[in-house]
Amino acid sequence: MSLWGRIFAAGYDKFMAETEEAGLARHREQLLADVRGRVLEIGGGTGANLPHYPRGIAEIVITEPEAPMARRLPAHALPARVVSAPAEKLPFEDASFDVAVSTLVLCTVGVPALALAEIHRVLKPDGQLLFIEHSGQTTAESLAGKTGSTACSVASATAATATAARWPASRARGSR
User: Fold this and answer.
1) Which of 10, 21, 85, 102 could bridge 42 with an S-S bond, Cβ 3.0-4.6 Å?
2) 31 by DSSP, 3-state: which?
3) Tens digits of residue pLDDT in 127-156
4) Which of 78, 2, 26 has the alpha carbon at shortest distance from 47?
């Protein structure tokens, strides 16, 4: 556990507070309003999505590879468990989740295409990927991991298009 990881986790919510108030919290609420079934949240961070999940979800499994962030996940009324795992290597059976949620995560992933492939693997055939990503100018190649240094500029529209192409029977909803 690095000193930087502890500092980043300690300041993350404060750093994001203005962005959350300016509309990100509203995007989270809209994105998660209809979530049902067994949910996998990729990179749960400090739990910013937790207040926005509706009641009645069967289970939420939150992956968070950074221990300092995971320790900041609050206790919540919903049935949730935390698993230490990177998005590129999910320790779950194929087709085991109804919904996958990823908010502001792909920019931290070394190879976004590998993370999307893993998400695809663990989602049921009619599963749904819901996400919010940083916007910016990008190409399908950067999403495919060919230019990993541009991962932080993955645009939600590009990701939604690429995701929908991978899962024609399901819906991928993005927000920015």
Assistant:
1) 102
2) helix
3) 999 988 875 434 444 444 433 333 333 333
4) 78
